[in-house]
Amino acid sequence: MSHKHHSISIHFAQAVVKAALQQGLNEQQLLHDAGLSKALLHNNEVRITPQQLSRLMQSVWRHADDEYLCLGSQPSRHGVFSMMAKQVLPSGNLRQVYRRGSRFYNLVAAATDLHFEESENGARFYLKLADPELDPDHTLVDFLLLLWHRFPSWLIGQKIPLTKICFKHEKPAHFEEYRLMFPCEAVYGQAENYFEFDREILNAPVIQTQQNLSAYLRRCPLDWFQRQSYYPVYTRKVMDYLENAENMADSSMEGVASQIHTTTRTLRRKLLDEGTSFQELKDGVRRDEAIHYLSQPDVPISQIARLLGFTEAAAFTRAFKHWTGISPSMYRKSKE
């Protein structure tokens, strides 16, 4: 079994819904479209699937006619991203993608100012909001920086290796999500919002076709939420081991230590230095898998417990309640 599903903090759904409600959108309709409920939305410990967040954003795009999620000084009409994508597709390389894409949005979307620059030391993509006060939870900044990393990466068929991402805001409560969103170091309280990367990749050619783009646009924004996690060295090694484990019940500290040719004592110390532990990482993987399976109503809770390495459903229920604050049955029921 390969454990590659992941979950997303409810924080983002809460911020999107809050902004939508301030513009008069129907909360019940938005939650129905996303497969969410008020019970889930109001539980700060809950995590949701990428599919749920994607459907929520699509609903806001349609009902508000605003791809900036009601968080900008002016809306970016639904369809603007699609138009931009079609404009940059004929670009010869990544450099042209960033130049053309920035120019396009600066012409049609007054709520943002995008700027791309290249120097001997690297390349940077800057994002400035016309009215950042309208984005109090930094949700629009988060999503747009994510978009401008993930979409160009898709166009050239390889992940753009970021060296750093900088935010004007101070370290937020949801900062742990950034290591799942941006595969690099995050720095806060900076003069500008931007990410930087090695300029050599700017010569990478665009490899996607019009047919591929059409399929990509139908999936948006789901592809932006696929994990490109940034973890320290030993944390990443343990995550790789856990996510590819054939049997979660048999995964152990000894197993991963043997695989990476070190001792359990050394591995434990390295993880502690990186601010985590084997059990914490294992619980995170099992939590995300549980949320994925619970979103599939045909998979019994007892089977989910076995898949995740629990000897009995009661033990899984206790663990899930510890992770999220509610039981698996309540989580599943609250989505109905």
TrEMBL record:
PROSITE patterns: HTH_ARAC_FAMILY_2. InterPro entries: AraC-type_N (IPR032687), Homeodomain-like_sf (IPR009057), HTH_AraC (IPR018060), Tscrpt_reg_AraC-type_HTH (IPR020449). It comes from the Bacteria. Residues 236-334 form the HTH araC/xylS-type domain. One of its GO terms (molecular function) is transcription cis-regulatory region binding. PANTHER family: HTH-TYPE TRANSCRIPTIONAL REGULATOR GADX, HTH-TYPE TRANSCRIPTIONAL REGULATOR VQSM. This is AraC family transcriptional regulator. It comes from Amphritea balenae.
